[in-house]
Each structure stands twice: as structure tokens, then as C-alpha cells.
Design a protein that fits this description.
The complex is a heterodimer of chains A (110) and B (212). Chain A has 110 residues and is α+β, with helices and mostly antiparallel strands. Chain A has a single domain, classed as Arc Repressor Mutant, subunit A (Orthogonal Bundle), CATH 1.10.10. Chain A is built from five helices and two strands; from the N terminus they run αααββαα. Chain A has a two-stranded antiparallel ribbon. Chain A is globular and about 55 Å long. With 212 residues, chain B is mainly α. Helix content of chain B is 84%, strand content 0%. Classes of the chains: A alpha+beta (110), B mainly alpha (212). The interface between A and B is medium-sized, with 26 and 29 residues.
């Protein structure tokens, strides 16, 4: 499957969540951070499907933590953004800023 | 299934469903769900936590299904097509066998017509067994995407059965064809069951190996 070299909307949100959470970023915290900030319900499956895609693109790396009893003996999978991921999110941010510059979005289109 | 002990246990069937769609060495998704379920159950009560767990399960399974298919669309489609052809072969064999036996022992059947009718009814069961075997073969071929391949094949067959039934009933006006519809749905269902059996066995084998 061809790999896109830009970030989709949800990919963009996930990378920003990882950057905010730093070394505390795993499935639960990423999902909760997105729900808290975007006020929309997100499934853990959507988070993992996107994280796997980002890892395949080289924007994200993962490592396993230790298994814990409250997780039924399953380990956490921690994620961090790579230098390539940071460059991609910067590119996406610049594109968004450039596209919205000069538009009075709240007053004109609300 | 989950090994989470105590009164705050999530729905076992939902946990099992998520396990079916995650790769054999990937326990993080179920682990994350269990962690949030325990937290939510202690804060907001068990009923709300169970509802949340089911909602997350439905959305997660849908996402994993789509993502799994998109990760290898061509090989998955090839396996599904192979399964479809195999199914046609498996469903054709009992008919051919019965025809051969009927031709050879025509006199016997004419003397035991009731037995012949029972054999005809038994053909449906043979179709179901054939579908289950095809489901297992498709799942074996689609390693890691067992449920995606068998569910897609099941859905395609379901859609074909709906279209064919509607077409036959509307063109002939004979609604007796509707009685065959549950059998067509059962075919799709046993294919998915075959996939689930292979997936569960593979998952169990992986856990035993990692535990050893």
C-alpha cells in the first residue's frame, strides 16, 4: 500500500497528543487526552489503528512497558514522536496556519 | 478471555471479541480497555462502565476490521476469492455424490423413498459442515487477519443471498424461497465461526508459547 507523506486530521491530533504527553503516552492517556481536548468520543481501536499507521510511516516509535495486574497482566505500549514525526507535524501546522491566515473564522463563518 | 479477577470484571464476550481482532502478541488494546474499565467502574459504577466497555468494543472492532483490511487489501481479497471458489466446490460435492449414488442404486431408493427424502434434508447439514471447513481454511490462509477474511466472505455471501432471494421472490412471486434464506445466513455464520475457532486456537497457542 502506498504510504502518504502527510498527516491526516486524526493523525495530526494523535501526534500533538503524544507531544503533549511526552513519556506518559500510551493508549489510555492518548485516548483521554484527545477526548478531553477535542470533546469527542474516541475509540481505543481508532487510536491504535492510527498509531500503527504512524509507526509504519516512521513518525512514531513504540516500546513495551511492564505488565500490571489491573491490566489483566498485559503490558502498556508507550509511544514517542520521532524527528521525522516532528517535522511532519510542523509542516502540517504551517500549512494550516498559512491557509487560515487573514480569515476571521469565528466572526465571518460562525 | 480476561484473567482480570474480582467483582469489577468487564463483559467477557466483549473482551473475547476484541481479542479476536487484535494480533496474537498485541495485548495492549485489551489491557488499556481493562484499565479504563476498572477506573470508570470504581468512579461511576459498574453499569455505566459496562456500557462504556461495549461501546468501545463495537467501535474498536470496526476500526480494527477496516485497518486490518487496508493493511493488506490484495492478499486478503485473494484469500476471500479463493474461499468463495472453495465454497462453490464444497457445496457442489454433496450434490454430485448424491447423484452418483442415486444413479447406481436407483432401485434401492425407489423402495426406500423416505430414506431418500432424509438424505435430501441432510444435504443442508453437509453444506453447513462444508462452509465451516471453508471458514477454517480461509482463516488458516489469512494468518493474523482470520476474522477480517472470514467476516468479509460471510458478509459477501449474505449480501448475495439477500439480492438473490429478493430477485427470485419478486420475479416468480413464490415466497417459498424465503424459507431457504435462514440456511444461507447460517452458511455465512458458520464461516465466521470457523474463523473464530482458528483465531482462538492460534491465540491460545501463542499465549502458551510466550508463557513457557
Amino acid at each position: 500500500m502506498p504510504v502518504r507523506d502527510y498527516l491526516g486530521e486524526f493523525e495530526h491530533i494523535i501526534v500533538l497528543a503524544l507531544l503533549r504527553l511526552e513519556d506518559r503516552a500510551y493508549g489510555v492517556t492518548v485516548r483521554q487526552e484527545i477526548e478531553f481536548r477535542t470533546k469527542r468520543e474516541v475509540s481505543i481501536g481508532a487510536v491504535y489503528a492510527t498509531l500503527d499507521r504512524l509507526e509504519a510511516k516512521g513518525y512514531v516509535k513504540s516500546r513495551r512497558g511492564d505488565p500490571t495486574p489491573e491490566r489483566g497482566g498485559r503490558s502498556k505500549r508507550f509511544f514517542r514522536v520521532t524527528a521525522r514525526g516532528v517535522a511532519a507535524v510542523n509542516r502540517a501546522q504551517r500549512a494550516l496556519h498559512s491557509m487560515s491566515e487573514g480569515l476571521d473564522l469565528i466572526r465571518s463563518y460562525a | 478471555m480476561t484473567s482480570h479477577a474480582g467483582p469489577l470484571q468487564p463483559p467477557r464476550f466483549a473482551t473475547w471479541l476484541v481479542n479476536l481482532f487484535t494480533s496474537a502478541d498485541e495485548g495492549s488494546i485489551v489491557g488499556d480497555l481493562l484499565e479504563e474499565f476498572s477506573d470508570l467502574a470504581s468512579k461511576s459504577g459498574r453499569a455505566l462502565a459496562r456500557r462504556w466497555f461495549w461501546r468501545q468494543t463495537a467501535k474498536t472492532v470496526a476500526h480494527l476490521f477496516g485497518a486490518g483490511y487496508r493493511s493488506a487489501p490484495w492478499s486478503t481479497t485473494a484469500i476471500i476469492l479463493g474461499g468463495f471458489l472453495l465454497l462453490k466446490l464444497a457445496h457442489g460435492l454433496p450434490d454430485k455424490l448424491l447423484m452418483a449414488v442415486t444413479d447406481r442404486y436407483l432401485l434401492y431408493w425407489s423402495n426406500h423413498f423416505q430414506a431418500y427424502l432424509w438424505v435430501l434434508k441432510g444435504l443442508r447439514i453437509e453444506y453447513l459442515i462444508g462452509s465451516a471447513v471453508v471458514g477454517c481454511i480461509v482463516a488458516l490462509a489469512a494468518k493474523g487477519r482470520e476474522m477480517i477474511a472470514t467476516m468479509t466472505l460471510g458478509l459477501v455471501l449474505c449480501a448475495m443471498a439477500v439480492v438473490a432471494t429478493v430477485w427470485v421472490v419478486t420475479t416468480t412471486g413464490d415466497d417459498s424461497y424465503l424459507w431457504n434464506f435462514p440456511w444461507h445466513l447460517s452458511d455465512s455464520l458458520v464461516i465466521v465461526v470457523g474463523g473464530a475457532i482458528v483465531r482462538a486456537r492460534r491465540s491460545g497457542a501463542t499465549h502458551r508459547l510466550s508463557g513457557a
